[in-house]
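Ticket #4471: structure output looks truncated?

Reporter: J.K.
Steps to reproduce: submitted the chain below (281 residues) through the standard prediction queue, then opened the result file.
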Amino acid sequence: MSQIKEGGENHGHCCTKKINIDDKRKEIVDITDQSSEILQQFRAYATELDNKHDRFERIVKFGRDITIESKRIIFLLHTIDKKGKQESVLREADMRLQKVARSLFKSIAHELEGQDPYLYLKAYRNGLEEYIEAVTFYQYLKCDNMKSWLEIEKTLTYKISEINNVKTIQVLVSPYEYILGIADLTGELMRLCINNLATGDRASCYQTCNFVRDMYTCFLGCTNASNRLVNRKLCTLEQNLHKIENVCYTVKIRGSEIPKHILVDLVNEEYADSDESYHAY
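Returned output as attached by the reporter:
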């Protein structure tokens, strides 16, 4: 009799436990229903973050293509070795630079439409700086000057025609990126100076030297001493200027006593380690 009683007590305890579990599940379901708005918000945040990351990766790919093509254009511009070839090379370089602006940069501008461009500047910064280096190098070879920041910004601004209006989209070109790009230009001018020496165009060496010297003077007046990257670029600019000045010194002092081909070899041996390789592109 006592066993039956004990069994009944155990059975009642199990039923009570089962009822408690069911109530707990119901309570969880009720809480989930009450917090559905919060869950929807978090799902919206997740979707927004996914879109941001996907957009960032697409811009990175565009920026990588811009970097590669800009380096190829710079390499093309270095093949100018005589006046007869200069016009055709400059024409081809101009066409390729316009293609980069009309296709790759325009795609970036579409991606940045309605977005905060500073959130994505890092994705295409390297490509932008390389493009600025290429377009200013082209401008120097063509007109002995270089495009300003506003001119490059205007080049990367696009008007899109719609049914009722015309909207404007653009790629962010900050003054900071422009400064870094033209600082890299001095490296190409240093190589140009050595190439001109090889072709016997010694007057261009002095012209390039004066141009880079003016750039260095301007940099001294506008750089921020607390910016490590700009300071590094300024040091590189100063080194490039010293190399160009040494080329001019060698031409002026030893040019009359050393044959031209030996003079070029002397300069090339001194600065061979500073040359940038384009073979990977």
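Triage note (M.O.): checked the attachment and the full token line is present. The CA atoms of residues 17 and 166 lie 70 Å apart.
Status: closed, working as intended.
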